[in-house]
Design brief:
Oligomer: single chain
Number of helices: 4
Structural class: alpha/beta
Order of helices and strands: HEEHHEEEEEH
Largest sheet: 4 strands, mixed
Number of strands: 7
Strand order of the largest sheet: 3-2-6-7
Radius of gyration: 24 Å
Length: 145
């Protein structure tokens, strides 16, 4: 009887003394996060706050840069529309994340203010809007028409 009581006490002791191995979870707020799950194209542009900052930093040059960026963005979205493919527009404040098995991976922010992210099968590529059509075809295996 004493040995059974002793075994029960040992089991109780060891069940609390063993440290459980838990996976570390990265908390990313959902309202600021775009979870990439399927083939996706994301166009990134500056937020209104960032635009005001760029205007102050670049002065009159900002309007030339923004005009060029909008031209290449329009060409890129026209290409996507011609292929009947979906895309999304986001500003630089959004967090782009995806699951790779049990890991959460975050796509790093870029220095450029206007660019795109191509995502497919847990792989991504950052693409400058100037080369979007060619890079899209290469990355996602679409033929250009």
């Amino acid at each position: 009887m004493k040995s059974i009581f002793f075994i029960v006490i040992l089991m109780f002791f060891f069940s609390f003394s063993c440290k459980k191995n838990e996976n570390t979870v990265i908390h990313i707020p959902n309202k600021d996060t775009l979870w990439l799950k399927e083939k996706t194209v994301v166009f990134i542009s500056p937020s209104l706050k960032k635009i005001e900052k760029l205007k102050k930093e670049q002065g009159e040059d900002f309007y030339t840069i923004a005009d060029d960026a909008n031209y290449y963005y329009a060409n890129s979205t026209e290409h996507m529309d011609s292929l009947h493919e979906k895309y999304t527009n986001q500003n630089e404040t959004v967090i782009l994340a995806y699951k790779d098995g049990t890991k959460t991976k975050v796509i790093p922010k870029q220095k450029s203010d206007w660019y795109s992210i191509l995502y497919k099968d847990r792989n991504f590529k950052v693409v400058d809007l100037i080369n979007f059509t060619e890079e899209y075809s290469l990355f996602l295996n679409h033929s250009t028409k």
